[in-house]
Amino acid sequence: MEDIRFDRHFRTPYSESYYIVQGNSLQSSNRLGTIDIHFTTTVVHGILILERELEESDLTKLIEQIDEDLVLSADMPRDDFLVDVYVGKDVGFYSDEYFTEESDTSTDFEDEDEE
């Protein structure tokens, strides 16, 4: 696929996660999906989540590009690259801070109900 870049989201000793962005400029680029890569002693596992469906030929090209640009460049030995592919949409981002705020809000509501 053309005009694809991988923006690293995070990295650990045995895993990496990237946003997959299509387009070269900020105005014309959009997120195509994410790829999480997990390195084991013999196999590399990938979880590819696309935000829109791709033709089979584009999907295989994208997986090949991920293999060449991210997996092989990691210089980790591997016998195979196994990829699970999903199509979905981003519905939100949650963190401990979100749940702390939710807990504080629900506590406020409980106090009002008791009066």
Residue-averaged pLDDT: 88
Number of domains: 1
Helical proportion?
A: 25-40%
Structural category is alpha+beta
SSE topology string: EEEEHEH
> Can you summarize the main beta sheet?
5 strands, mixed
The stretches of 5 or more residues where confidence is low (pLDDT under 50) are none
- Which percent range describes the beta-strand content? 35-45%
Anisotropy-based shape? globular
Helical segment count: 2
The number of E-state strands comes to 5
Kindly report the spatial arrangement of strands forming the biggest sheet: 1-2-3-4-5
| Spatial separation of the terminal alpha carbons | 62 Å
Rg, alpha carbons: 19 Å
Record keyword descriptors for this entry.
alpha+beta; about 120 residues; five-stranded mixed β-sheet; 2 helices; 5 strands
Structure, described:
By secondary structure, the chain is α+β, with helices and mostly antiparallel strands. It has one domain (4-90). It is 30% helix and 37% strand. The protein is built from two helices and five strands; from the N terminus they run ββββαβα. The chain has helices spanning 56-71, 96-114, and strands spanning 4-11, 15-22, 30-39, 43-50, 80-87. The protein has a five-stranded mixed β-sheet with strand order 1-2-3-4-5, covered by helices on one side. The longest helix has 19 residues, at 96-114. It is globular, with a radius of gyration of 19 Å.
